[in-house]
Amino acid sequence: MDELEGIGHYQFKGDLGTGAFSTVKLALDHSKKRLVACKVIEKKAISTPSLKAKFESEIRILQQLSHPNIVQLYDLLKDDDRIYIIMEFCSGGELFEHILEREHLTEAEAKPMIKEILSGLKFVHSFGIAHRDLKPENLLFGDDGEIKISDFGFSRFVDQNGLAQTPCGSPCYAAPEVISGRPYDARKSDIWSTGVVAYAMLTGKLPWTQRNQNALFDQIRKGNFVIPNFLSPLCQDFLATLMEVSDKKRPSAEDALNHPWIANAPCYGQDNRQMRRSSHACISLQQVDKFFEDNKNISNSKNSTQTSISDEGENQYRVRAMCRCASDPPPLHSQNTQAHGMSAGMMNSRASNQVQKKYEIVMPEKMKKMSPQKKMQMRKPSAPKNHLPPLPINSQGQQHQIAPPTKPSMPSPRRK
């Protein structure tokens, strides 16, 4: 991709991540004096009718979702060769990186984050939309430490029963019904995925111990996982409730928010989020309609290349780092359609810090005024004193058994 200086009133300041046909750039919005993330997509990457439809569906979904716990879509632009998606810049990086740095979070630290995930999900589901790919890589930290859901590449509108048929998402976070091959309630599968994310936050590991795909899927279908007993009884019950094998018995996002373990938890940045939401107006439906009214502006190149934009190697690293497995199951989808997701997942804290240092970019005033203690808590938490052991396999095939209380030390995860 050629070196670009900017588009419109957006001045590019550096790359946050790259793919085969796209680049995520940090940009300065001169009109509003704020930093934004700009995903630059080559039009040839979405030249087929199916990819065009998928891209438009995701944009139209994002346009409706104005919520403090959802990464916001600000603007859409295009030229002869590229499309530019202007998104909210999440300076705190990915939840995935925070889990690796901390190895696990305390219940007090995790509660507000999980509550915000469920709050965002409740809002998404209220529009008849299911996310279908919730995982730590798609959960980002805003300026005040609040969690924001990103990457709606697999999202879709569902009927009143929430039914979907296509299995999609990441295998380790997929609900039993998703891998069963039958129609499933996609909103309830989002709740299961939230449970797996919460489990990873609280333990530093995924609940699955099997390495090959068939064994992994069998373990998921049976709900054969172990909840460690160093978690409080209410926390154990919360995880078991979200990861209930029967989707009919699984709670909605609203019901999960009323669980006694999480009902009274605070939310990070709650005093400032409404102000930011009103001051950062999102793109209008009229703007989106105008953007898509001339489909000829998107090239119909006959020589279109592969649809995947994401880095499969990076994705495999992420699964290995969380699962600590020697080999990993392949994605549920044969094609990685997540490639065109609007995720700011590549905007990890390390990349953003490097770009800020290189270009001497000043972060928003709220981050300046934040105390060092809060910055450490929200963005760069220190490692815990006690490391957690690998969880044993539940050989009895019973759901939600409690692990033995032993806690041998474990080395921190490292990149390979």
Automatic annotation (TrEMBL):
Give me the ranges of the annotated region Disordered.
365-416
> Where in this chain does the record put each Protein kinase domain?
10-262
Among SUPFAM superfamilies, the record links this protein to: Protein kinase-like (PK-like)
Point to the regions of Basic residues compositional bias. 369-378
Q: Which InterPro entries match?
A: Aur-like, Kinase-like_dom_sf, Prot_kinase_dom, Protein_kinase_ATP_BS, Ser/Thr_kinase_AS
Q: Fetch the Gene3D superfamilies from UniProt.
A: Transferase(Phosphotransferase) domain 1
* GO terms, molecular function: ATP binding; protein serine/threonine kinase activity
Keyword field: ATP-binding, Kinase, Nucleotide-binding, Serine/threonine-protein kinase, Transferase
Look up the domain of life of the source.
Eukaryota
Detail which positions bind ATP: K39, E137, N138, D151
Return the SMART domains for the record: S_TKc (SM00220)
Where is the catalytic site?
A: D133 (proton acceptor)
Cross-link Glycyl lysine isopeptide (Lys-Gly) (interchain with G-Cter in SUMO2), sequence positions: K135
Q: Where is the composition biased (Pro residues)?
A: 405-416
Task: Spell out the family assignment given in the record's similarity comment.
Answer: Belongs to the protein kinase superfamily.
Q: What is the protein name for this chain?
A: Calcium/calmodulin-dependent protein kinase type 1
What organism does the UniProt record list as the source? Answer: Tritrichomonas foetus
